[in-house]
Amino acid sequence: MRDSECIFCKIAGGDIPSATIYEDEKFRVILDLGPASKGHALILPKEHFANIYELDEKTAADAFILAKKMAGKMTEALGCDGFNIVQNNGSVAGQTVFHFHIHLIPRYENDGVGLGWKPGQLTEEQKEEILSKMRE
Ligand code: 5GP
Ligand code: ZN
Fold first, then answer.
1. 101 catalytic, yes or no?
2. Beta strands in the chain (DSSP E)
3. How do beta strands 82-86 and 27-31 pair?
4. Cα 97 to ligand 1 centroid, rounded to whole Å
C-alpha cells in the first residue's frame, strides 16, 4: 500500500525523480539529499510502512539483506574505510520522514561525521528492572 501524502512513497514509486543507485520490485535505493558523507544513501521499500513497528518480517529481512549487499557494493565502488547502517524510528529518535528507511552511510578516515552518543553507566537497579520487564 502507498500513502498519497508521503514523499518517500512518491520517490520509491518513481513519481518524483531521484538519484537511484539500485532498484528492484520491492525497494529503491537513493542518494540522500542532505548527505552525512559522500555516498550517503537510503533504502526505501516501495510499500508504505511508517516505521519498524509497522514493517512486516519479510520486508524487514529483505531490507537488511539489501543493506548488506549495498554496503559491499558501495564500499567497493566508493573506496570508503567503514560503514554505518542507521535506522531511526519516531521523532525522538531523529526520524523526520515517516516512511521506513535505512540509512547507508559510507565512512572515511577523518570524515568528521557526528554519529554516536555519550556512554552512560548500566546501574544494578536499571539492569534488574530491564531484565525483569523483558522477561515478562
Ligand atoms: P530520518 O531523519 O527520517 O531518519 O531521515 C530522513 C532523511 O531523508 C534525511 O537524511 C534527509 O536528508 C533525507 N531526505 C528528506 N527528504 C528527501 C528527499 O526529498 N529526497 C532525498 N533524496 N532525501 C531526502
Ligand atoms: Zn510512504
1. yes
2. 20-23, 27-31, 41-45, 82-86, 102-107
3. unpaired
4. 7
| The C-alpha cell that represents 131 in the structure block | 531484565
CA of 95 to the centre of ligand 2 (A): 13
Q: Render pLDDT for 52-99 as a digit per residue (tens, 0 to 9).
A: 999 999 999 999 999 999 999 999 999 999 999 999 999 999 999 999
Q: Does the CB atom of residue 87 touch ligand 1 within 6 A?
A: no
d(CA 83, CA 73): 11
User: What's the gap between Cα 93 and its chain centre?
Assistant: 12
- Is the C-beta atom of 30 inside 6 A of ligand 1? yes
Which residue, 94, 96, 91, is CA-closest to 115? Answer: 94
What pTM, to 2 d.p., does this model score?
A: 0.97
- Residue 32 Cβ contacting ligand 1 at under 6 Å: yes
Cα Rg of the chain, angstroms: 17
